[in-house]
Amino acid sequence: MAANQKLVVKNIGLLLSGDLDRPILDADTVVAVDGKISAVGRERELDLDGATAVVDANGTALSPGLIDSHVHPVAGDWTPRQNQMGWIDSSLHGGVTTMISAGEVHMPGRPRDIVGLKAMAIASQRWFQNMRPSGVKIHGGAPVIEKGMEEEDFRQLAEAGVTLLGEVGLGSVKAGDEAQRMVAWARKYGIQSTIHTGGPSVPGSGFIDKDVVLAADADIIGHINGGHTALPDVQIRCLCEGCKRAIEIVHNGNERSGLFALRTAIELNESYRVILGTDGPAGSGVQPLGILRMISMLSSLGDVPAERAFCFATGNTARMRKLDCGLIEVGKAADFVIMDRAQHSAGKTLLESVQLGDLPGIGMMIIDGVIRTERSRNTPPATTFPIILKNAPAAASGGH
Ligand SMILES: [Zn+2]
Predict the structure, then answer these.
(1) What CATH code would you report for 66-288?
(2) For the chain, what are the domain ranges?
(3) What pTM was computed for the model?
(4) 56 CA to middle of ligand 1, Å?
């Protein structure tokens, strides 16, 4: 990130905060300096001098960039699962600015011996840190734990920069007590964990029921709605009631079960635990609009006001994942989606259109205070688009 970059986004018609406690902010302008939000307020009250980039939002909506809590990347912007290039760039066009790996499990010939899996995790962490496809932040390097791992292995992984475990249950560790021991070692060294929930996703994956999930006590109840085969509702309820861990609902899961998990979380007054992922790439393909589709599905069928549904994919995930983005707040990363109701939506406003089950039209994507795309090539076209008033060439834009 080059120094002295100042971005101003003004004339925002609807400012979504990402924060469930206050999902809509009474402000029309956001300022970011060197990639971080430096001020939020009314245009006339803020210091806009010296801006290197100015965007007129033209009365449209701005939200924190969406976070996909569950992806399976491999290397760069390539996925061997569906033999596809450019799926991360396509997801940027669907509003996603941050992705979290739940394991680089689609790597052909993935090593399952302990030294090999550690080496791959460390290498993955490095290659996604060193190269961000289209600027999207990929938190990668998530080893899938195998039988025989010792505390020392987790210490070494953490020391080498690994911060995540891939889905527990995709390797040979499938018993609750064994998983619990390794998850606790991971936590001791600051490594966050996700557990696979439900039936096997693809041949070679496993079945994990509620007893194993609760015993393992991973930080994230990965795809509580199955990936795609879900647990019975009674078990999903037990998972929601039996712990305080994140309730992750994914696009590539059982939609009915996802709605059941959402309603259970709301009933428990624990909506703050709901986070969203795609679980792509997967057998069902890649989902460039997967997170937007989840927001719209949960809002429309789950009767959640749209401004709250956006929080599931932004502030909630950021808090559960301890990320520096996902909220419109001074000091947070300047990762933004600028969007409006899609053309010809029956909804009269962006929020109403999402509550009716339509997708928004994206007009611009910004990561670390740098404009990455204008009109999305993947969403339906927005009714109104933001306008770039100034965009001085940046010396370096980070990540390319
Ligand atoms: Zn899974």
Answers:
(1) 3.20.20.140
(2) 6-64+328-391, 66-288
(3) 0.96
(4) 41
Omega before residue 196 within 30° of 0, cis = no
Judge whether 6-64+328-391 and 66-288 match in fold.
no
C-alpha of residue 287 to centroid of ligand 1, in Å: 16
Q: What is the mean pLDDT of each run of 10 residues along the chain (400 residues)?
A: 83 98 98 98 97 98 98 97 96 98 97 98 98 98 98 98 97 95 98 96 85 97 96 98 98 97 98 98 95 98 98 98 98 98 98 98 98 98 98 61
232 alpha carbon – ligand 1 mean position (Å): 16
Q: Which two tokens stand for residue 304?
A: 């959640």
The distance in angstroms from the start CA to the end CA of the chain is 11
| Spacing, Cα 168 to ligand 1 middle (Å) | 8
Q: Measured in angstroms, how far is the CA atom of residue 222 from the centroid of ligand 1?
A: 7
The alpha-helical segments, DSSP class H, found in the chain are 87-92, 114-130, 151-159, 176-188, 210-216, 233-242, 255-267, 290-301, 306-312, 315-321, 350-355
- pLDDT of 208 reads 94
State the greatest distance between any 2 C-alpha atoms of the chain, in Å, as a whole number. Answer: 62
Cα–ligand 1 centroid distance for 208 (angstroms) = 9
* Per-position DSSP letters for 31-88, written without gaps between them: EEETTEEEEEE-GGGS--TT-SEEEE-TT-EEEEPEEEEEE---BTTEETTTTEE-HH
CB 359 within 8 A of CB 342: yes
CA nearest to 335, candidates 112, 3, 18, 12 = 18
Q: Which CATH architecture has domain 6-64+328-391?
A: Roll (2.30)
